Amino acid sequence: MTGLPTAPPSSLFTPLRIGTFDVRNRLMQAAHSKQYSDRVESARETAYFVRRARGGCALFVAGNHFVHPSGSIRNFEDAFRPESVAANRRMTAAVHREGARILVQLNHHGAQAQPDGPDGPRAVSAPSRLLSPSTGHATRAASRRDIAELVDGWARSAALARDGGFDGVEIHMAHGYLLHQFLSPLYNARTDEFGGDVDGRTRFPREVLRAVRSRVGDDFTVGIRIVANEFHPDGLDAADCRAIIAALRAEARIDFLDLAAGGYHNVHYVFPSSAMPVAWLREEVAAVKAANPDVPVFGVGAATSVEQAAEVVDSGIADMVALTRAQLADPDLARKLAEGRADEIQHCIRLNQGCLGRGSRGLPVTCTVNPVAGRERERGPRAEAASPSDWLVLGGGPAGMRAAIELARDGHRVRLRERAPELGGQLRHAARVPGRESAGLLLADLLRDLRARGVDVRTGVETSAEELQSIPADRVVIATGARSGAVGELAGAGAWAGPAAHEVVDPLDALAHPERLGDRIAVVDADGTAYASGVVLGLLPAVRELHLVTPFETVFPHVGAGYDRGLLLERLDAHGGVVPHVRHRVTSYDGTGVVLRDGFRSAVPRVLEGLDAVVAIEPRTAVIPAGAADAPIVIGDALSPRNIDAAIHEAVELAYRVADEG
């Protein structure tokens, strides 16, 4: 005995009563749309939840189950369908067997619904006639008859959810969806009893609460998801939101408060990316909890890091900690925290590429760092290799590092060779971009796992064709990445209508040394992806004026699927010196001036004079070592330059293919 006082145990792994049921700890996954099911729950969705329940998560919210046909969306679930009950029972029973609890979120998108639904065209209703910030379509104002029908839809859906074995329902009043639209002056301009002051704007949500509670009774858990702040000068501030919560709680028993922020007017608050602060809603969550000490509050955006999740509960900021994408990335996160193995966590890097980026394109959600997410039935644990092989991995970027880790995890003997002095490849460039520093978490995780798996790593090694043939290895993986594309390499029209008579600056060189460029530069972007926007964001702090020239109809047309386009444009605008030239191509560059041709008025040239430098961003091109052009195993950018998701996915898939070969 040392006599030293021991720290009190954290409340993170203590039970909590939520309405009519208990959860085993305070870690949850908030609702998130995955597009694994269509109309009713699927075996794929069940497997996803079960895997995370086995990893220790205590509570799930099955997201976006719609309460009325006017809100149905392809690849989402309909809560109003009686046939959903049997599918829901299979899923909820499977989650319960793993010791976890599961709620269902009942919703209607209102103005954010598309006028073309899965069953055909439909009218899109909102509190008022407005332009949807999500779809750009004009809505109709919901009638009193519409409202009454929707109130009944929520009540019937809640009853079916109870029949389906859910532990409770979450009524969605956030994220700019229908009930939130009625609450918010940004959407609600009505002059009847459903508009105006707080009493009028809360009337429809209050009627929903009353109807749901009447239909399911007092022995069933009913809570709400609601904004704690709209973060808009003309919208609801934090005090307004707390007043609305008080009005709703006065109407009917609410068993929990699940907090959110923003709306589709500033969608980066709804789906916060790496450019947002980690604990972006912490103060608002704490204020709601202080005003509602008698009801469980779910804290979204409240933890300063996943390792500090316990601090949220221990300090009284919230009763539950929502680590949603974090458990998409690492399904064992809860168990690792409980067992003191936080140093083994596979971190979410919050780039929104594999999850929201895919979902926004109508594709099933997965994860940049965990490509097995959503494929739990097809990609289970791999057995250790019965006959281990000797592997050589050429390339120390994310594809090569992850391939080496996965193969070594399966018992193979792995060497990794990288010609640069450090591992990481273009992850190192990405981590230097303002707002994308989280890429460094992935690099740190990969370096940690290489050490843990005993991979033989050598850097600063250039492997010639002769050496490649002489290295004793049963199999070789080419993961040598990509380099910046050069002007004129692409077939067909690009950003350059004529040759560059003067040397242009390589984008990665520019990003590494922006201070060398000068005060006034042009960036000619023929790429349009997050790679290009990252280069520009990295250059902005070092320049006064940046002319962004692109042949596309808008700047960075391939950025936006991760719901951070609005934030990107805000940051460009905030600089004050960014001048876009869309639908323009460069016809000549003489070292100081660039001549542009306008795609709309091709006969009218425009000259940008007095430039200190021109940075040319062309689509990247693969790097293949001499003697490896016909190598059988090529992954990542060496196969075709894309993004981190492709690199990690192909590395993991390689390990599964090798395991299947026996």
Defining key terms:
single chain; 18% strand; TIM Barrel; alpha/beta; FAD/NAD(P)-binding domain; Rossmann fold; 662 residues; 3 domains; 8-stranded parallel beta barrel; 4-stranded parallel β-sheet; disordered N terminus
Textual characterization of the structure:
The chain is 31% helix and 18% strand. With 662 residues, the protein is α/β, with parallel strands linked by helices. It folds into three domains: 11-359, Aldolase class I (TIM Barrel, Alpha-Beta Barrel); 390-484 and 622-661, NAD(P)-binding Rossmann-like Domain (Rossmann fold); 507-619, FAD/NAD(P)-binding domain (3-Layer(bba) Sandwich), CATH 3.50.50.60. An eight-stranded parallel β-barrel has the order 3-4-6-11-12-13-14-15, surrounded by four helices. A four-stranded parallel β-sheet has the order 18-17-16-19, covered by helices on one side. Strands 23-22-21-27 form a four-stranded parallel β-sheet. Helix 1 (43-54) packs parallel to helix 2 and helix 3 (144-163) runs parallel beside helix 6 (203-216).
Outline the secondary-structure elements.
Blueprint: E1 16-18, E2 21-23, E3 27-29, H1 43-54, E4 59-66, E5 77-78, H2 84-97, E6 101-107, E7 116-117, E8 120-121, E9 125-126, E10 140-141, H3 144-163, E11 168-173, H4 178-183, H5 198-201, H6 203-216, E12 221-227, H7 238-251, E13 257-260, H8 282-291, E14 297-299, H9 309-314, E15 320-322, H10 324-329, H11 333-338, H12 353-359, E16 390-394, H13 398-409, E17 413-418, H14 426-431, H15 439-452, E18 456-459, H16 465-470, E19 475-478, E20 482-483, H17 507-512, E21 520-525, H18 530-539, E22 545-550, H19 565-575, E23 578-582, E24 584-589, E25 594-598, E26 605-608, E27 613-617, E28 621-622, H20 644-661
Parallel strand pairs: 3-4, 3-15, 4-5, 4-6, 6-11, 9-10, 11-12, 12-13, 13-14, 14-15, 16-17, 16-19, 17-18, 21-22, 21-27, 22-23
Antiparallel strand pairs: 1-2, 7-8, 20-28, 24-25, 25-26
Helix pairs in contact: 1-2, 3-6, 13-15, 13-20
